[in-house]
């Protein structure tokens, strides 16, 4: 997913949370989503870095 899709997903969750009255849950899910995106990005960067090192060693 690209960053613009994360924003759309967050907006959709926000609209649903307003109708259901779960604003605090929405905020907490937002923090969790941001943390997972950061973890995913870091793992991808580490994988690419490791892959480049393995290619240059061979």
Topology:
Layout: H1 3-20, H2 23-57
Helix pairs in contact: 1-2
Q: Give average pLDDT, whole number.
A: 82
Which structural class is indicated by helix and strand composition? mainly alpha
Q: What's the total count of β strands?
A: 0
How much strand content do the residues show?
under 5%
Query: What is the CA-based Rg, rounded?
Result: 17 Å
How many DSSP helices?
A: 2
Distance between the termini: 32 Å
> Any idea what the shape is?
elongated
Unreliable spans are none
Bin the helical content.
over 70%
Largest sheet: none
**Helix/strand order, N-terminal first:** HH
Describe the structure.
91% of the residues lie in helices and 0% in strands. The protein is an all-alpha fold. It has a domain at 25-58. The chain starts with a helix and ends with a helix. The mean pLDDT is 82. The chain crosses the membrane at residues 6-39. Keywords: Membrane, Transmembrane, Transmembrane helix.
Report a brief summary of the structure:
The chain is mainly α and 58 residues long. The protein has helices at 3-20, 23-57.
Features:
58 residues, mainly alpha, transmembrane
